[in-house]
Amino acid sequence: MTKLADCDIVKRDVSRAHSIAQGPHSIAQGPHSIAQGPHSIAQGSHSIAQGPHSIAQGSHSIAQGSHFIAQGPHFIAQGSHSIAQGSHSIAQGTHSIAKGPHSIAQGSHSIAQGSHSVVQGTHSIAQGSHSIAQGPHSIAQGPHSIAQGPHSIAQGSHSIAQGSHSIAQGSHSVVQGTHSIAQGPHFIAQGPHFIAQGSHPIAQGSHSIAQESHFIAHGPHSIAQGSNSIAQGPHSIAQGSHSIAQGSHSIAQGPHSIAQGSHSIAQGSHSIAQGPHSIAQGSHSIAPSLRSSSKKSLIRMGEIV
After folding, report:
1. 55 — phi, psi (to 5°)?
2. Which letter does DSSP use for residue 94 in this model?
3. Can you give the C-alpha Rg of the chain in angstroms?
4. In CATH, what number is assigned to the domain containing residue 114?
5. Strand 188-190 relative to strand 202-204: parallel, antiparallel, unpaired?
6. Is the residue at 301 inside a domain?
7. CA-CA distance, 51 to 49, in Å (whole number)?
8. Which whole-number Å values give the CA distances from 257 to 12, 63, 125, 171, in the listed order?
9. pTM: predicted TM-score of the whole model, two decimal places
10. Beta strand 303-304 pairing with 299-300
11. Mean pLDDT of 107-135
């Protein structure tokens, strides 16, 4: 009985070798552990808890600041009321939270949830494995989602929102530019104030809009509305399924309508206007290029008018 008691004493002494506890109700457990501050707790080898009510649990875990919590090996919590949970997780900033292995939350009220998630910026949120939120009030939700810029939002797996107030919603959606929006899977919006809505739409150029499936809008203020519609050129408009507007200020309205050339207009299903300032109005109407502004050739249903 005496030998067993001696062995227990030795074990307790080894577990507290070189441990330091400073402050009322402070606890340091583990070799080289340090607890400094009232009600501070350091548990694990080389763990450090500094500040009132700070908690460091796990080998090499660090909690610095009042009410900090670091739980897990190699955890770091720095800032009042910050929480780091998961191996190698880091929470820096007041009320910051890092949950998941290798998660990083930097900035006041920042939240990183998921393995290898990263948050940099005040009030920003990253939820999902390998998600990244950079910038104040940025939000990245979904695995591998990226939100970069103040107030940017990326929601969906592999979604990317780059630019202030940019929004990417849907898996693999991409937004690049200030105040641009991509809503739907595989959407692409590139440029300031772009809007892409529908499956696989593409909007490229300032203030361009792509709405519906497989839409493409290239150029500033261009608009593509309808499945497989294409608007290429500044201020170009393509409205209707498979409609095509190519050229500045060109307009194609109606299914399968085509307007090619600056200021060309094609209105009606299967209407075709080719050349600058040409006009085709009515279904299946065709208008060639105009040679002068005074002479206007307009062809409807195969008849010259």
Report:
1. -135, 125
2. T
3. 31
4. 2.150.10.10
5. parallel
6. no
7. 7
8. 85, 66, 45, 31
9. 0.66
10. antiparallel
11. 96
